[in-house]
Design goal:
The protein is an alpha+beta fold. The protein contains twelve helices and seven strands. The longest helix is centred in the middle third of the chain and has 38 residues.
């Protein structure tokens, strides 16, 4: 039975995560404004997460399962004012922590994991003309002797500047649709690879977003993730499905980032209003509350509900049960709630909320992406509809 109440030690860890996360608050604005600078491995005044690790040793087998708990940690960490998304993304959080690493782990062969597992890998699917409809990938890969030759353009590669390389989607047979799509590990030093530019963005500015070009880019034959060079007739390939499965791991993580920003913005609003003498008295009945107090309660409920969808998707993963539906539910809900709660926090704060002196406008700007990348809210709803109604992706597009 699922039970998402945290044990004492779990709660202690979550509290410590926030405390440590707040230690980088002083740098949040600097790296936001200087997005092309990579923060040093350790910021001045930064307390390390090694403070948290010993507490993990005190966890017992019947505490919250690990993936579920890591989502709670992610929400706690991302809500900390020092780790407002953007700066959090830009900080070196472990070498092999890119989105491409999740793809390598879920679709790579044991040899590929051993060979590349320590690298920091971005994920490169999106192209100038291809976003949500990933089966329309135009980048091509052609086998030439013992090398693949890649040609095409990619945009919006998170961590694309600082990563060692990327998992790149390309088609080996355009006529085969999604069955022809494979993913390749491309390192930055591959001949024909070019880092074209770094995007300037509305939010998560401290996280780099790159554009790539591949011009007769040559990579070794064994760089095809999963190693399957066949193009099955009539349907998706195992390779394509393998990498799509990655999303069931990464969508809860991305959703947790959205919930974290909602939580952070709401905490900011609660604290700022408390300083002005406005806080929620939970014992009061509805008619006794002010509009602001009622609004805070609604924002709290939305944030908590979204957090529970994230924990549920992760819990199913912990239990090795399918979580395709729940991953999309939490991604859709996390994105929605991030947008509505960060804006709600601004609403109750009024004019001060737009000031650069406070973090709440940053939560709102950084949060906007939660509903776009890793599959937009509309695409999540399509997946949810397919799962509930039993349609395939060909039947419901
Ligand atoms: C900061 C940032 C970081 C990113 N990081 C990465 C990354 O690391 N790797 C990567 O590969 N990509 C990345 N992306 C790309 C991101 O995943 C895409 O932007 C996203 O998938 C949407 O694609 P699109 O922008 O082409 O929009 P489109 O697909 O053109 O969609 C435009 C609008 O139409 C809606 N829409 C599209 N199709 C349907 C449909 N069938 N039914 C209903 N509505 C639909 C969408 O929901 C959206 O509202 C990133 C993007 C940004 C902005």
């Amino acid at each position: 039975m699922a039970d998402f109440r945290f044990s004492d030690i779990d709660q202690q860890i979550l509290d410590k995560v926030v405390e440590v996360g707040n230690s980088t608050t002083a740098h949040t604005r600097y790296y936001e404004d200087h997005e092309h600078e990579t923060p040093p491995a350790r910021l001045e005044g930064e307390r390390g997460f090694e403070e948290v690790f010993p507490l993990f040793g005190q966890r017992q087998p019947d505490d919250t399962p690990m993936m579920t708990f890591m989502m709670a940690v992610s929400i706690a960490r991302g809500s900390a004012s020092g780790v407002v998304r953007g700066l959090g993304l830009a900080m070196p959080s472990g070498r092999a922590s890119g989105l491409g690493n999740a793809a390598l782990q879920s679709a790579g062969t044991p040899e590929q994991k051993a060979k590349w597992g320590d690298l920091f890998l971005a994920m490169s699917i999106t192209e100038p003309g291809v976003g949500s409809d990933t089966k329309a990938i135009q980048t091509t890969a052609r086998l030439d002797g013992e090398e693949w030759v890649l040609n095409g353009d990619k945009i919006f590669v998170t961590d694309g500047v600082k990563a060692d390389g990327a998992i790149v989607w390309a088609t080996i047979d355009k006529s085969a649709g999604r069955a022809g799509i494979k993913s390749f590990l491309v390192l930055k030093d591959a001949p024909g690879f070019e880092l074209v530019r770094q995007e300037k963005k509305l939010g998560i500015r401290a996280s780099d977003t790159a554009a790539y070009a591949f011009r007769d880019c040559r990579i070794p034959r064994d760089a095809l993730l999963g190693g399957d060079e066949t193009v099955p007739k009539g349907g998706g390939s195992a390779s394509y499905r393998g990498v799509m499965k990655t999303f069931n791991m990464t969508r809860p993580a991305v959703a947790s980032g959205g919930v974290a920003k909602a939580r952070g913005a709401l905490n900011f609003a609660i604290d700022a209003l408390a300083e002005e003498g406005v806080s929620v008295d939970w014992s009061q009945s509805f008619p006794q509350r002010s509009a602001t107090q009622q609004k805070l309660i609604e924002l709290e409920a939305d944030t908590e509900a979204a957090a529970l969808t994230v924990l549920h998707a992760a819990w199913l993963s912990d239990k090795r049960r399918p979580n395709n539906l729940e991953s999309s539910v939490c991604k859709a809900k996390g994105g929605d709630v991030c947008r509505t709660v960060t804006q709600g926090a601004m609403e109750v704060l009024g004019g001060m909320s737009v000031s650069h002196d406070h973090l709440v406008e940053k939560y709102m700007r950084d949060g906007r992406i939660s509903d776009i990348y890793e599959g937009t809210g509309q695409i999540q709803r399509l997946i949810i509809a397919r799962e509930i109604l039993g349609y395939s992706s060909e039947e419901l597009t």
